[in-house]
Design a protein that fits this description.
This protein is an alpha+beta fold. It contains 15 helices and 17 strands. It has a seven-stranded antiparallel β-sheet, with helices on both faces. Strands 5, 6, 7, 8, 9 and 10 form a six-stranded antiparallel β-sheet that branches. The protein has a four-stranded mixed β-sheet with strand order 1-2-4-3, with helices on one face. Strand 8 and strand 9 form a beta hairpin. Helix 1 runs antiparallel to helix 2 and helix 12 packs antiparallel against helix 13. The chain binds lactic acid and zinc ion. Lactic acid binds next to loops.
């Protein structure tokens, strides 16, 4: 019996779709890498069905690619042509919110925004937030250890997960649904599955730690003259707000001007500036808005800021974020692109941007090199588009940027992961010994190498 026939016999036609009938959206992610039709798509409704699918794949040594919302930017959820795509999209429930324990339990395919709303409904806050919140899923953010816009306050996804249920490559269900903040028994196995991009197991459920929901939030938008001013503003905001500072997002004008025009958003401050900053703070004292006003007034006086404004309601707040949140529009506005997600210490940021831009422009004078990022987390994003070429010269663009990243002591992935597109530079940010240890874990948990082969650290 073929793999497809075995899967059909075990799971039925409702759960299994043969390659030619697989809807297009399951054939690619947001990386811009070309679509791939898998051998079959499986859409299980239960953990037991996930386990059955994995057992069949294990027995037949069939590659399997788990999928969440497919909003990843690194190709990790793109199907493999002779493999199975396993979408968790039907396992999309919030199972429970526990107010007393301050936890949320959800299925892997639950859309992040749905989980955030469930936490909010209980007066609590889920600490993971990113632009793709309406598309990405709990399993996806866990598998990629997603970062996002509030890392400086709540940490990465890893810091917000208490427990997991994972199905291993051979179909074994690993129940690790811890809901205690402290549980110090042996190896904290869940951490191996967080950020390992579906190479060690398929996450089917998770317990998230929730946080008290700050009732008072303030969002500001500021223009700074240059990187030095922006970094001084960051230090100033940290000193003023302490742990109440939730976001410090920066956009360089190349990014800001093009994307703002592309989505038709208004410009919230007077005049043009060297950098645009979104500052957000959330606290338990209604005076936080006054604090932000005072913070910005001081910054204006000190010359750290050229002009600034505050949002007075939810609509204005969304307006201040609009350009920063336009990631799903890149394809439409820029066309094909080569994205980067670099981590660098802040004292090298100015040099990094200048040298990367210069290196690109020297090679392609009309290049569009758009810089932005989570400066509160030392995380710089860059999207590169070379106009008027049939195929983006990614193979040439990447070494320019990654060689500089390495030279400046940075990491090739701060929050997006490796997927397929950064495999060749994984060694820039991890030693041979670290990679060997990762592969030893992989071999132990997935001896036949069926889970997301050729992605991240997986052979
Ligand atoms: C962002 C995504 C791309 O920060 O990480 O917009
Ligand atoms: Zn980001």
């Amino acid at each position: 019996m073929s793999v497809l026939d075995r899967l059909l016999a075990a799971l039925g036609p409702d759960a299994v779709t043969a390659g030619p009938q697989v809807p297009e959206r399951f054939c690619h992610d947001w990386s811009g890498e070309p679509a791939v039709q898998p051998l079959a798509l499986i859409r299980p409704r239960t953990t037991a069905e996930v386990a059955i699918a994995l057992r069949v794949c294990f027995e037949t040594t069939t590659p399997i690619v788990p999928q969440g919302g497919r909003s990843g930017l690194c190709g990790g959820a793109r199907p493999i042509s002779q493999g199975i795509a396993l979408s968790l999209d039907r396992m999309n429930r919030v199972i429970a919110v526990d107010r007393l324990q301050s936890t949320l339990t959800g299925e892997a395919g639950c859309v992040l925004e749905t989980a955030q709303a469930a936490a909010a409904g209980a007066g609590l806050l889920l600490g993971v937030d990113l632009g793709a919140r309406g598309t990405c899923t709990l399993g996806g953010v866990i598998s990629t250890n997603a970062g996002g816009n509030q890392v400086l306050r709540y940490g990465m996804t890893r810091d917000n997960v208490l427990g997991l249920e994972v199905v291993l490559a051979d179909g074994t269900v690993l129940p690790a649904m811890n809901s205690l903040l402290k549980n110090n028994v042996g190896i904290d196995l869940k951490q191996m599955f967080i950020g390992s991009e579906g190479c060690l197991g398929v996450v089917t459920q998770a317990v998230f730690r929730l946080h008290p929901r700050p009732p008072h939030n303030v969002t500001a938008f500021a223009g700074c003259a240059d990187t030095q001013a922006m970094l001084s503003l960051l230090a100033h905001c940290r000193a003023v707000f302490g742990p109440a500072l939730t976001s410090f997002e920066v956009m360089w004008p190349g990014f800001y001007d093009l994307m703002r025009a592309g989505i038709g958003a208004p410009h919230p401050v007077q005049g043009s500036h060297g950098l645009y900053v979104i500052i957000e703070a959330g606290g338990f004292d209604a005076r936080i808005t006054d604090q932000m006003e005072a913070c910005l007034a001081d910054a204006l006086e000190a010359g750290l800021v050229g002009d600034a404004t505050l949002a007075h309601n939810g609509r204005e707040e969304r307006g201040l974020w609009a350009v920063r949140e336009s990631v799903s529009e890149y394809g439409r506005i820029l066309g094909a692109l080569t994205p980067f997600d670099i981590g660098l210490s802040l004292d090298r940021m100015e040099e990094a941007v200048a040298r990367m831009e210069a290196a690109l422009r020297q090679r392609w004078p009309d290049v569009r090199a758009l810089f932005y990022g989570h400066m509160g987390d030392s995380n710089l994003h860059l999207v590169v588009n070379v106009p008027n070429v049939a195929v983006q010269p990614s193979k040439e663009i990447k070494p320019l940027i990654y060689d500089l990243t390495r030279e400046l002591g940075g990491t090739v992935s701060a929050e997006h992961g490796i997927g397929t597109i950064k495999r060749d530079v994984i060694g820039y940010s991890r030693s041979d010994a670290e990679l060997a240890a990762m592969r030893a874990v992989k071999a132990a948990l997935d001896p036949r190498g069926i889970l997301n082969p050729g992605r991240s650290f997986a052979p």
